[in-house]
Amino acid sequence: MIIRKTPLKKILLASLAVFLMAIVLTPLQAKNLNHQQRKTTTNQFQSVSLPENLLTVAERSNFTATSRFHEVQALINELQKLSSNLVVENIGITTEGRPIPMLILSNPPVHTPQAARNLGKTIIYIQANIHAGEVEGKEATLMLTREILMSKNHPYLNNLVILIVPNLNADGNEKISPENRRQQPGPEQGVGTRQNAMNLDLNRDAIKLESPEMRAVIKNILNRWDPALVVDCHTTNGAYHEETVTYSWPLNPNSDPELLVYQREAMLPAIVKTLKEKYGTLAVPYGMFRDWRDPSKGWVTFEPQPRYFTNYSGLRNRLSILDENYVHADYKTRVVSCFNLLKAILDYSSAKAAEIQKLVEEADRRTILQGLNPSGKTFAVEYDLQPLSKPITINTYEFEIIERPGGGFPQLKPTDRKKPVTVPYYADYVPKRTLSLPYAYLISVPDPAIIDNLTTHGLLIESLTSEVSLEVEVFFPKEFKASERPFQGHRLNQIKGEYKKETRTFPAGTCLIRTAQPLGFLAAYLLEPESDDGLVTWNFFDRYIAGQWQRGFSELPVYRLLQPAILPATSLTK
């Protein structure tokens, strides 16, 4: 064949322009093509633009299939042959024993975080297939990697080091079936499952850290490489509208407020503008109508808890973007929309790399200073959801509402009649009840599971080297209830009680966690008993609060030191 007789380098250079026109077809253009036109475009791409070994499974199958684990690995191996600018590092092993490869794109290539920092470049992390039924990011990140490597000096790599995990939930990915996610059009050969091999939702595991996949991401990417921006790729589950991409910033109000404002008011509006004008792809903030019968009641976002990876990353003082591709678009449009969004994000990030790096470093400094002098600083334990100051427009449709026999939520059937609506967007979680931020927390029980969790998150943990007496706040529970229905293998706790100031003596070996560290607000989220997603919620302290044969409740063995103090301590963190 001609491809075999022509040097690969010449093929790649000659075909790049054809590739960009053929495969990166915008969703707005794709919508106007009939099925035969789409088939012709894809076939031309396969036969003219690239050798088959460089195509994703989605492309090779004319967008009727998604890749399995071995096919992702095979394509990564082929991509490594294209350029030395790709380094592959396995960040961990899944429950069923599959390696989790991370792609490191850099020019010149780097093998360590320190090498990336020595280059003065900003690190970006893109994560896909955390839910293995939502495969669009998996295919799009592989396409993105290929495009970057096909350019000898791609401009993204001038200012960025890009980390990509295309197949985080590799075990769930292998359970591909047409019966999974039947609400979406394609791929015909099916997708994987939402949960991993432990039947855990990885996007609910960022706090409790029970899955090997999420532990690997936090230990070996967030803690080790410390990306300034993370992007998490998903696919939506319901709402009908024209926009083929939805997105969000981190939502928890305990995150750094300056980072939240920057993402919401500067960064993401600029990315959405580029996405539309440069890539022909429409986007709208992620959400659902509060009432489909009356859209004027508003559009509402998701929950603020840091169990969700986007919120968790924000609580760590890092920028983060949730990508939710539009479930009701055809499979090819979903993949290409995701691809275009990732490019728009990298367009912005490469141009603003120094600004992004400065923003997150300043957020770290603010957090440390607040911990050193916490007087007047607060931590929110309850929130109200309020609309943003400006409404948003959603390009939705008129609906036929079909009532169900016996009542219940009606069936909604969209028509072809477009009906744009401008409505309030409920996406601002504001503090409703707050507590004073302490100088430090002391933990009096040497529980290995608790210490392992805190250490895995990357918190700086110390151990007292001699006995000290301190005035602290002690939490005494009055109500302690577990949910009736299990969630992710847990019965989540709700706790109510009161704090009392007492002088306590803490022996040598007591665990000490100061809030004067970059992850100070994460420490508070994990250790405050009334936190809605902390370790008390996830059952880590059950045996200490409600012991066997015990009628009442014991005090929580976590103590709040409000005032700065000189403490004899040594680091436990490696």
Per-chain topology:
Blueprint: H1 2-5, H2 8-22, H3 27-31, H4 35-49, H5 57-60, H6 69-82, E1 86-93, E2 99-105, H7 113-118, E3 122-127, H8 136-150, H9 156-159, E4 160-165, H10 170-173, H11 212-222, E5 229-235, E6 245-248, H12 257-279, E7 283-285, E8 288-289, E9 299-300, H13 309-315, E10 319-325, H14 331-351, H15 353-372, E11 378-387, E12 392-402, E13 411-423, E14 425-436, E15 440-443, H16 448-457, E16 462-464, E17 468-482, E18 493-506, E19 511-514, H17 520-527, H18 542-545, E20 558-561, E21 569-571
Parallel strand pairs: 3-4, 3-5, 5-10, 6-7, 9-14
Antiparallel strand pairs: 1-2, 2-4, 6-10, 8-9, 11-14, 12-13, 15-19, 15-20, 16-19, 16-21, 17-18
Question: Could you explain the architecture of this structure?
Answer:
- With 574 residues, the protein is α+β, with helices and mostly antiparallel strands.
- The protein has 3 domains: 58-371, Aminopeptidase; 383-430, no CATH class; 438-571, no CATH class.
- Helices cover 33% and strands 25% of the residues.
- It has helices at 2-5, 8-22, 27-31, 35-49, 57-60, 69-82, 113-118, 136-150, 156-159, 170-173, 212-222, 257-279, 309-315, 331-351, 353-372, 448-457, 520-527, 542-545; strands at 86-93, 99-105, 122-127, 160-165, 229-235, 245-248, 283-285, 288-289, 299-300, 319-325, 378-387, 392-402, 411-423, 425-436, 440-443, 462-464, 468-482, 493-506, 511-514, 558-561, 569-571.
- The strands form 5 sheets. It has an 8-stranded mixed β-sheet, sandwiched between helices. It has a 5-stranded antiparallel β-sheet with strand order 20-15-19-16-21, covered by helices on one side.
- β1 (86-93) and β2 (99-105) form a beta hairpin.
- α2 (8-22) packs antiparallel against α4 (35-49) and α12 packs across α14 (331-351).
- The model is unreliable at 1-48 (pLDDT under 50).
